[in-house]
Amino acid sequence: MLAIGLEGSANKLGVGIMLHPDDGSSPQVLANVRHTYVSPPGEGFLPKDTARHHRAWVAKLVKKTLREARISVDDVDCICFTKGPGMGAPLQSVAIAARMLSLLWKKPLVGVNHCVGHIEMGRLITGATNPVVLYVSGGNTQVIAYSSQRYRIFGETLDIAVGNCLDRFARTLHISNDPAPGYNIEQLAKKGKQLVDLPYTVKGMDCSFSGILAAIDALAATYGINGPEKDEEVDSEKSVEEGGKPTRADLCFSLQETIFSMLVETTERAMAHVGSKEVLIVGGVGCNERLQEMMGIMAQDRGGSVHATDERFCIDNGIMIAQAGLLAYSTGFRTPLKESSCTQRFRTDDVYVKWRD
Amino acid sequence: MHPETYKPPALPSPFSTTTSPPSLITQGAEAHLYKTCFLAPDTPAALKIRPAKAYRHPILDRRLTRQRILQEARCLAKSLREGVNVPAVWALDWEGQGGESGNGGAWLLMEWIDGPVMRVVFERWEKFLKRNQGSLSEEDVAGEESRVRGLMERIGRAVGGLHKSGVVHGDLTTSNLILRPFVGGSEDATTGEGEGEGSPSMEGDVVLIDFGLAAQSAQPEDRAVDLYVLERAFGSTHPKTEPFFDSVLKGYEQSYKGANVTLKRLEDVRLRGRKKSMIG
């Protein structure tokens, strides 16, 4: 079976092709193409601009993907697309593209939950069988464990996503959005030395990030280090307690240390609760090596291990949609044209996972 | 838990030198619980250790560990003073071995509470019902149900008493409630693990334990969330007892003035839980 997957729930437009060989051998990635809409420093991506980007690029990417995979349209069994959750306008442009392909090629559609796509791709790449999943990206923050046909949400953010918190702080500091604001924060944080005091907001299994963002934005404003980088910035000899001033790197470092600790703590609680020793990190923030390192230490202390992937599979892509779509397709799932809409709100635990025991 | 591969961190002084070393009871996400003794060998004590988390920045780790262990001790002390059945706090150190040489971990030494946790009591009761499905008369079943209802009402009163003292528990499950048998009570109740043939004893005091997520609050919202967590715990771990949850609420209602405000709020909390929709 062969599926083409289309993803465009945020600023990444991804098209990918997955093959599930008929002899039951392990699935193969035939092509994984992505184009990202990058906004200027200090700005986020707006839905209308992102949708315009997706509309302009989707046909080119589909052609490129087919070429790279060296297959013809006849080989395709189904067309998978992201049904939600995500930004409305970008989701719609990609859903329309999927419908168009379905009518043009006379192939069935499979609507896929974006979060389930991340989980299934992570499981496939890392070989983790039944892990506790930490799904962290610009739009989602969830701690998930599988139980009787559902991916159940144990904990989640109460307000903004962890990636959104990082993205918006990057905007405050006018850090470049290319290739991704989170990546640039991670590089800057490596130069940070001192930890500034930030709120730490874990409520049971849930986290909150909006207050932390407000606090660190205020700190940056107080020390006058927000906005574009100024040339004269010098490393202060004194620590913050001694009346010194933190650097931009110190703030990035402190923000990462604080919010990642919160994520690792809630994940550990979920692991203790379900008695699992494996963790799988998926989603764009999952590329962060410091987060992977912290999670690794925690898992090791519990006698377990951490599974993570690199940017090809962590960051939104088309193959994860194709992978989750194919699993559903093989159990007989189809999305009729009439129901091939998309939705901004689509919870992970709404999906009936028929393909797992 | 996998005791064969897992090695808990070293115990802080003075517990590293105690003869008959403390025995590990459970490992939670945050803390390890040991059984040891206090001053005299025949005074059993519960030792809760919060080891330093190596993944966290040391400054952040110290701050959080200290905050949390003090909060736990304060909540326990406050509710004990108000006459709630909780373990007494005997000693604590928020920096492990103390001072700069400390490993950053913290420990709390408490009174040891005898008796099975409610999870075990209800599990045994559910097993007993299942085993004797055919042989129990309608009268027997009604008698069993009223016994469970009685226990659940006492649980409700215990939670009400805690809330009255100005503390919310934060993690009310049937694993965090102990049925402490009366002194000289029936032998049956004292053994938690034993696979008794008959219906388990439901005599004794309801004692609340594990205040790791407790907080001082008198807000109807926080109190209602406490009850909601307990309700969901009953529903997911002991489905057969779920229809009797109104007995918990009945006991709760009688326990303090103003309980009805909390119960009213509980209705809102229930709705919120179900319709929770993803944002952000």
Automatic annotation (TrEMBL), chain A:
Key word Oxidoreductase present: no
Cofactor: a divalent metal cation
GO molecular function: metal ion binding; tRNA N(6)-L-threonylcarbamoyladenine synthase activity
Residues holding a divalent metal cation: H114, H118, Y135, D316
Localization per Swiss-Prot or TrEMBL: Cytoplasm; Nucleus
Record's keyword annotation contains Lyase: no
Reactions performed catalytically: L-threonylcarbamoyladenylate + adenosine(37) in tRNA = N(6)-L-threonylcarbamoyladenosine(37) in tRNA + AMP + H(+)
Cross-referenced CDD domains: ASKHA_NBD_OSGEP_like_euk
Record keywords: Activator, Acyltransferase, Cytoplasm, Metal-binding, Nucleus, Transcription, Transcription regulation, Transferase, tRNA processing
Positions bound to substrate: Y135, V136, S137, G138, G139, D167, G182, E186, N288
Stated family: Belongs to the KAE1 / TsaD family.
PANTHER family for the chain: TRNA N6-ADENOSINE THREONYLCARBAMOYLTRANSFERASE (PTHR11735:SF14)
The protein's name in its UniProt record: N(6)-L-threonylcarbamoyladenine synthase
Organism of this sequence: Aspergillus nanangensis
From TrEMBL, chain B:
Domain Protein kinase: 19-280
EC id: 2.7.11.1
Keywords: Activator, ATP-binding, Chromosome, Cytoplasm, Hydrolase, Kinase, Nucleotide-binding, Nucleus, Phosphoprotein, Serine/threonine-protein kinase, Telomere, Transcription, Transcription regulation, Transferase, tRNA processing
InterPro entries: Bud32 (IPR022495), Kinase-like_dom_sf (IPR011009), Prot_kinase_dom (IPR000719), Tyr_kinase_AS (IPR008266)
Biased composition (Low complexity): 13-22
Keyword Transmembrane: no
One Gene Ontology cellular component: chromosome, telomeric region
Residue stretches in coiled coil: none
UniProt-listed NCBIfam families: arch_bud32
Function: Component of the EKC/KEOPS complex that is required for the formation of a threonylcarbamoyl group on adenosine at position 37 (t(6)A37) in tRNAs that read codons beginning with adenine. The complex is probably involved in the transfer of the threonylcarbamoyl moiety of threonylcarbamoyl-AMP (TC-AMP) to the N6 group of A37. BUD32 has ATPase activity in the context of the EKC/KEOPS complex and likely plays a supporting role to the catalytic subunit KAE1. The EKC/KEOPS complex also promotes both telomere uncapping and telomere elongation.
Quaternary structure annotation from Swiss-Prot or TrEMBL: Component of the EKC/KEOPS complex composed of at least BUD32, CGI121, GON7, KAE1 and PCC1; the whole complex dimerizes.
Family: Belongs to the protein kinase superfamily. BUD32 family.
Protein name as catalogued: EKC/KEOPS complex subunit BUD32
